[in-house]
Write a structure and sequence with these properties.
Helix content: 25-40%
Distance between the termini: 60 Å
Structural class: alpha+beta
Strand content: 5-15%
Radius of gyration: 23 Å
Shape: globular
CATH superfamily of one domain: Cytochrome c-like domain
Number of strands: 12
């Protein structure tokens, strides 16, 4: 009997070892966009987990979904915290200048293309201009939120005073009353610098999150109690605590981690990126200011953006605007995490604001306006150098 026990025990050990050898290996941290940043306290990690859960919550009719909506959970537009793709794109409509949106009584600014039973989804009103958009990745946003207004103003050159053809400017808006102004905010005539969204029209992550709940999912809150279908104020369908957990989750998601940094082609591509002036707008390194979250406070990070508005030319003019941006102006998107975009987008790239570019090369060639010269510089590169540039961008 004693011998039998030994045999059975040995067999069970062998079975465990065999199963472990067959299990897929865990992906490296630099291959994932999701996960908390380093240096969070125990309490902040708990808030992160609660926010992560809320980010993945599926809304139903019983939970307040709709009646008109685009998606029923945050993560359906940001799979794996990455970029969205054309199947879940959303449409903004009705505003072409700064005089206001003439279609607010017809569902503007966002077209809700889905509806719960008993309701009809919205159709684009006749005569309304529109812009199709895909959701951006949400990692590293806490660092971008913590950049000081003073630093963004220092980066701007709205009159192109240095004559380089690039005239980035901050997006000054009238923020909603519920936002909490970041430390040392700068205001001009009651306006503050916004920095989130494709045209940088949302002041902070609370502003962005509240809009997403209301416009994407038809969920009202204490912050935004207006029902998207009726236009009337109704009881909140999500509580403040949940909204704040999601905001905290977005603030403390880690920044994307580069890969293959010492690869010869990547290093060559990094130099080319600077040589052809891509870094004039996609600034490699920024620094956060003070943040009540120590892990975010006064940290150097590498997002490849200046968070400013730039005129991108006629090819990217969508004839729609938000806030005080022009129709051809877009906030410089951060490039970190670019090489992992395909993982969230079904194995293929869908780049630029509407996903029209299906490769990095194609996205570059759509650049115009202030980026025209950089695009021309790219076209003048040898094929080898173009490939090295792309290799570098895919390493971010």
């Amino acid at each position: 009997m004693k011998t039998l026990k030994i045999v059975i025990y040995s067999f069970s050990i062998l079975l465990i070892v065999s199963c472990e050898s067959l299990a897929p290996s865990s992906p490296e941290e630099n291959e994932l966009l999701d996960g908390p940043m380093e240096g969070l306290t125990s309490e902040q990690n708990i808030q992160f987990i609660k926010g992560d859960q809320a980010f993945g919550d599926v809304f139903t009719v019983e939970k307040g979904l709709g009646p008109l909506f685009n998606a029923n959970q945050c993560s359906s537009c940001h799979p794996g915290d990455g970029k969205g793709f054309p199947f879940v794109r959303f449409t903004r409509f009705g505003q072409t200048d700064h005089t206001g949106n003439k279609f607010l009584n017809q569902g503007a600014p966002q077209l809700q293309n889905k509806a719960i039973p008993g309701y009809l989804p919205e159709l684009l009103p006749s005569g309304a201009t529109s812009s199709d958009l895909i959701a951006p990745a949400v990692t590293g946003l806490g660092f971008l939120d913590a950049v000081s207004d003073a630093d963004l103003i220092a980066l701007s050159d709205s009159d192109d005073s240095n004559g380089d053809g690039i005239s980035g400017r901050p997006h000054w808006i009238d923020p909603p009353s519920y936002v909490i102004f970041r430390p040392h905010s700068i205001t001009i005539d009651g306006k503050y610098i916004a920095r989130f969204g494709k045209k940088g029209a949302a002041y902070d992550l609370l502003h962005q999150t509240v809009n997403a709940y209301n416009q994407d999912m038809g969920i009202t809150s204490d912050f935004e109690p207006i029902d998207t279908q009726s236009g009337l104020e109704i009881d909140p369908e999500v509580d403040k605590e949940t909204i704040n957990h999601v905001v905290q989750y977005l603030k403390t998601l880690k920044a994307p981690i580069p890969r293959d940094e010492n690869n010869d082609d990547v290093l060559a591509g990094k130099q080319i990126f600077n040589d052809i002036d891509c870094a004039a707008c996609h600034i490699p390194t920024l620094k956060s200011g003070y943040s009540p979250i120590d892990a975010l406070s006064n940290k150097e990070f590498h997002p490849f953006t200046d968070l400013l508005l730039h005129d991108m030319g006629s090819a990217l003019d969508d004839n729609y605007t938000e806030g005080n941006a022009l129709t051809s102006e877009w906030k410089t998107p951060a490039l970190w995490g670019l090489g992992l975009s395909k993982d969230a987008q079904g194995g293929a790239y869908f780049l630029l604001h509407d996903g029209r570019a299906t490769s990095i090369e194609e996205a570059i060639l759509f650049h115009g306006g202030e980026a025209e010269q950089s695009k021309n510089n790219y076209e003048n590169l040898s094929i080898t150098m173009q490939n090295q540039l792309v290799k570098f961008l895919e390493s971010l």
